[in-house]
Structures
1.
Amino acid sequence: MFGVTVVSFSLIRMVPGDPVLLLLGERGASPEVYRSVQQSLGLDKPILVQYGIFLRQALKGDLGESIASRRPVWQEFKDRFPATVELGMTSMLMAILLGIPIGILAAVKRNSIFDYSFITASLIGYSMPLFWWGLILILFFSVLLGWTPVSGRIGIEYDIVPRTGFLLIDVWLAGDGWVAFKSAASHLILPSLALGTIPLAVISRMTRSSLLEVLGEDYIRTAQAKGLSRSRVIGIHALRNAMVPILTVIGLMFGTIITGAILTETIFSWPGIGKWVVNSVTARDYPVIQGGILLIAIAVVAINLLVDVLYAVVNPRMRDLL
Amino acid sequence: MKQTVLINPMETIPVSSEPHAAGEFWYFFRKNRGAVIGLVTIGFFLFVAVMAPWLAPHPPSELFGEALRLPPAWQVGGNWRFPLGTDDVGRDMLSRLICGARVSMGIGFLVVFLSAGVGTLLGLVCGYYGGILDSVLMRAVDVLMALPSILLAIVVVSILGPNLFNAILATSVVAIPSFVRLVRASVLEQKTKSYVIASKTFGAGAFRQIFVNILPNCLAPLIVQGTLGFSDGILNAAALGFLGLGAQPPTAEWGTMLSDARSFIESSPWLVTLPGLCILLVVLGFNLMGDGLRDALDPRLRK
């Protein structure tokens, strides 16, 4: 964690170009004004002192304020984070809810046409360039069929006051009801589909191979010999043990989701943290990049921890290691 | 091919002579249909990349003012002079895609060369010597791996400025940690083997131990990772190009072509579909071959 602060701080300071000049505009700043702005941003102090200040403030939960918008980085992050979480959660849910059943089906019907077409599809899904896939989805569903909107989170006719930050919930709290919910959901579906494709491919592939491995074990044959129904053997006996590697992969996929969110949010103009960080890089908004990277890294580490804990719940053998 | 499938694999290997390592590898690789398809795909794109100047019907940057956004030849309004149509300033799509193959393959080679080179060296040193250097470097690797790769690449590019070379550099930096980890793990495993200890008793120096004794035995996972590194490298560089942080517009790079074509998605969909399809095929090819190589090189995964 400490390392992440050093990296995010030092990397950003190497960016050529002067944020003070960028803020004031290319021309029309007298040296006095320049110096006073520099002082107010703390950019006149030696670099190590700047880092020390950054670290002390960060520990207190203060990540500085955005040079461009003059709002606290934490505030900006808090405004955008739910959008990314909403997108990431729906993608992940879709990947899990579709991926595991498809994987089970492929494993049970091993070597059938379904299995072969599944293997091919998952390989293609895994290699899919996300930014292209998003455009293809737009081309097909928005341009050709006209079913879904191209970008944004909700139709512009709605002005929803964010309460939870999750639009799918906020529309109900705001009392706009079903129509607004449908608008929000239709904006959400394409980005989730695009973002969920790679996790879907990986999760279903892992489900298939993990289940196949477990199905070859002796205790499965015992369960079958006891006369248990096929669905009980597969659904309870086999799946329970096959879940461990699947969970590992799901945990790893959260990192993929965050990476993918950066591209997906750019394609669909989704106002989340991915787009925020990309924009701030172009704008050389140091505090935002620093804080943004730090917060994203914290999120990734926290998710990994959560996955480890979940692990122990599913697999008792892991409990001693925690 | 058909005959060997019918015969028990154990019988096809002659009992009298030890099978040659390369022959054995080829035998298992060939049996994996996906891997062969991958190899053929890569071979095709490699051929196109090398022969690009001779294969392309027009120079990739030549503007045909009279033919703006012409659809592919088989569609209404198409023209066989431009088999895959033209883009928004009247450049021939086929020629640009062919030259794009050259750019993307070049990117892949450079990224793998740089990241595998640096990563292997660091991994060897870390694994062999251990100590403080190892701890410090491995913590750095942990930090780099905690951050999403694209994010890191974006930051590196923003430091150095957006152009193709810096995008390659950024993509390579992002790929280094996985090589360091992989090589370090194999070195730690090999270091305790008796052939290394035997060589040490004969007075072999560190250089000889690392490069002559240990490195060749770490090659198998390194080759697999290198192949997969190709697809990651091409994909990440194209993503940077797409975000406007990689190759800059006149260059015929697939990711950059995609981002240029975004505003014409409704009127001229072929500008969007074709470059992405090329990226997908190349990445798919490398992934298929990587999987095949892993199966063929690791005796435990052979069926």
2.
Amino acid sequence: MRTFRKFGPMLFLLWLFFVNILYYAQFRELAVSRFPWLAHLWR
Amino acid sequence: MALAVSAGCAVLVLIIFLITVALGKHILEIAGVTADHSLDTVLFSSGAGFAVLQLLLGILGLVAGLTVGSVLALLVLLAIAGGRGWKSLFRLCRESAMDLSVVFKSGAARALGLCIFFFLGLEALLSTAPLTGSDAMHYHFTAPLVEIGSPEKPIFWLTHSFFIGLGHELIGLGLVLGGDKLALLLIFFGGCLTAAALFQMARKWMPLEWALAAALTFLMTPMVFWQISTAGSPDIWMGFYAVLAALAVGQADGSSARRWLILASVYAGAGASIKYTGWILPAVILLFVFWMTRSLLWAALCSGAALATGVLPLLRNFLWTGDPFFPFLSRWMEKVAVNEYALESIQADVHSHAFSTQPFHILYFLAAMTVRGADYGLGHYFGPVLLAFLPLLFFCNWRARLVWVAAALCGSMLLANALTTQMARFLLPAYPLALALAIFGAAVATREGGAYVRFGCVVTLALFGLFCLASDTLYAKDFLPVSLGLESKVAFLNRMAPDYQAATFVNTALAQRTGKVLIFFRHSYYLRVPYEDGDPSESWKMNPGALASPQTLLAFLKEQGIAWVVKSPEYPEPLAKVFEECEKEGLLVPEARTEAETLSGSSRIYNIRLKVPVVLMRVAN
């Protein structure tokens, strides 16, 4: 339990980081279709 | 002018709402149940009232047909039946207003309230734009429009019309009394009620600011924004009834416990009446009833209540086709000849293209529907909050019955979806329950989990808020000019409604001519001449196996009274050969032709436009 309390929040932050990155990354194609100039950001 | 018409429709929605609340309150008084909170009472009353209204509209539609006279008469009768409910109504409104002034006491609550007001206002404006949603123009609005004015009949040339539930009767009511604007506003109002029910559920578990954050997250989520404003689908009503069913089970304590369980079954039945997949709601509620009462008699009584409010669409389909879930069981029912091509097409239509029932894939679906949403029926429109806060469910108070009911309802809907369709879009009714649980977990975790957890939760919610603000306003940009009266309806429809130009061409070309027209384009809502859909993937009548030669096809067209065929852009693949042979043999004679612009691709947000030929053919005598 002590280990969980110690590392749990960090693990949760890591989880949030990956979920958010993976989630927003999937809109790349849609964003570029509406704003072609955005394509430069992913070069 | 556009704003004045919209305001008139909003007043009509308010009147319908007041009638349902008065009627529902009267029903609650007769049942002898009293909610803890005035806003709870308004929501429970409204839910009961709408459940009765949609059921009676369904019966009226089947027996006599929906007309201005019959619908107005029904509303007047229900208003009279509201009886003593009207007296309580004004007290409830006053108490609810006082309660809301308490809710928005703190600065944070007022800021969240402003954000809620902004998104609600935007959604209300968008819902006053003319109908352009693809599925709505295909069947959600088209089938009720075709049925208006006379007793409902099976429409075999539009297989999706058998999916019409009691939520579509509210669309029918809107179409009869105020056109698509009123019908869309009623759907928007269903969204408002769902958000209010979610807020009431959330405030039982967490501080007011968090409950408001849950309601705001719900309203700004792109899926909800789209579904309650422009999509024209009645699925949101199922979400409303699902939350009410959970709240009613949560209230079932003390002497009136069993009466609350009956009421929960009524809401679950009303939810099931919206679409086939809704039958998971009464199944779960009945398990809870049996678990709580240990009585087969009460389980049977609650089953009866759920069936009474929800079974009408299934009964109608059974009488018409022998299959209550037409066409999915038609292979075994054998009352209506099976169209294998149409059945396979419709089964493909309700499955995501990445569908698989391998155990690992089902687990993968649960995560992938959020981060690879395009493969799983637009799951990414729900946002990342549920997946991100999944580990925080551990912090929910699992001793509370309401938590268990909410979790069981959304868990069973999720599991049923994963096993049958893997179309995340169908999970809209589970979303308010899942969101309430996720935010509950976050609210407790931010208090107990320390600074890191608080930082992660707040950043995730704020990031999603900014994303929603950008994507929702960008989406709204195309609709606001017509809603505000700055653009004409025709110019807007030419720009935004798929197949509108083809439909207006057919309307003009056939205005003075007799005979039905066979069409192959999907969006037929704006057709104003007698027509049938000829696409074999959409029409149960068009069986490619039975229409193999020009002679059989011609005989079929004559038998159906079809005098015209519209080729746009090409004939559907399984019937292309036989139609082309008809053209060569002079059985189909070109009469008029045009080029129409239409939207293409999986979604109009990609803004892919195509010019397609539209050719009107006369069927030779």
